[in-house]
Design brief:
The protein is an alpha/beta fold and about 270 residues long. The protein has a single domain (about 10-265), classed as Rossmann fold (3-Layer(aba) Sandwich). About 40% of the residues lie in helices and about 15% in strands. The protein contains twelve helices and six strands. It has helices spanning about 25-30, 55-70, 85-95, 130-135, 135-140, 145-160, 165-175, 180-190, 190-205, 220-225, 245-250, 250-265, and strands at about 10-15, 35-40, 75-80, 100-105, 210-215, 235-240. Strands 2-1-3-4-5-6 form a six-stranded parallel sheet, with helices on both faces. Strand 3 (about 75-80), helix 3 (about 85-95) and strand 4 (about 100-105) form a beta-alpha-beta unit.
């Protein structure tokens, strides 16, 4: 976890199957606006998971909260993409006094039953969740075929605009080791526990301001709609040319929206 003592802390949590490269277009905007970005790789998302005992998102949120507290981070903002968005929201629920604002990019939390609208439904994959949750299946089929497995997901979920080919290559390379494969699958196989945590959150929604960002060619407006039962202070935004990766596919408008939102809530008690 890289940290800076200058500026308001903004913790960045990327998802699967990407790495911290996802944030490279956002970092300069944050720094120019006097924020201190703290990119975090959750265990197993492109790096070895170490001794992480659980990939339940509530457990990962608790782990991250303890790590931030140990670093002296008492107040901060959160930006979460994909699985990072679920962890971010659960961390805000667990530490409401610490989190002043949240940005959720392209995530519908487990158990939230909402349809992805067109045209995103035509592009965002529906196969990867059941495949990843099937015990033993990916472990047999993926090793040696990472280009097909991760590459297919990255290309489909990016929509017509696609992703930079060199970045896609770096993502695939980061996920080729067996321990990272197992960890990535672990994120999907804690679904029953994740459903319990999200249902609990529905019973006691957070009041922290949330900016929900979707890509038109992926989850789109479903990101905001899916958060309506989980957060009481919600702003939605759809990036018109993006798939699942607005921070990469439309970096300037995405970064501007994020920095404007964080500045608006920077002094929130």
């Amino acid at each position: 976890m890289s940290t800076s003592s200058r500026g308001w802390p903004v913790v960045l949590l990327h998802g699967w199957p990407v790495t911290e490269i996802h944030w490279q277009g956002l970092l300069p905007f944050l720094r120019r606006s006097d924020f201190a970005p703290i990119p975090v790789t959750l265990p197993g998302l492109g790096k070895p998971p170490g001794s992480t005992p659980s990939f339940r998102k509530g457990d990962l949120a608790d782990l991250l909260g303890r790590e931030l507290s140990e670093l002296g981070r008492r107040r901060f903002s959160l930006v979460g993409h994909d699985w990072g968005g679920t962890v971010a929201l659960l961390l805000a629920a667990a530490m409401p006094e610490a989190v002043n604002a949240i940005v959720i990019e392209e995530e519908i939390l487990p158990g939230i039953d909402i349809n992805i609208p067109a045209p995103g439904a035509e592009y965002y994959p529906s196969w990867h969740g059941p495949f990843n949750r099937a015990p033993g299946l990916a472990e047999q089929l993926v090793p040696g075929r990472e280009d097909a497995y991760y590459g297919t997901f990255l290309r489909q979920s990016a929509g017509p605009a696609g992703l930079d080919p060199e970045t896609v290559r770096s993502y695939i390379d980061a996920y080729t080791t067996y321990d990272v494969l197992e960890a990535g699958l672990g994120y999907y196989r804690t679904r029953a526990d994740d459903l319990t945590d999200v249902q609990r959150l529905q019973q006691n929604p957070i009041h922290t301001p949330v900016l929900a960002i979707g890509g038109r060619y992926a989850m789109g407006s479903a990101v905001a709609h899916g958060l309506r039962t989980l957060a009481t202070d919600l702003t939605g935004l759809v990036l018109e040319r993006s798939g699942h990766y607005p921070a990469e596919q439309e970096p300037e408008p995405t970064a501007q929206a994020i920095t404007n939102f964080l500045q608006q809530h920077r002094d929130r008690p």
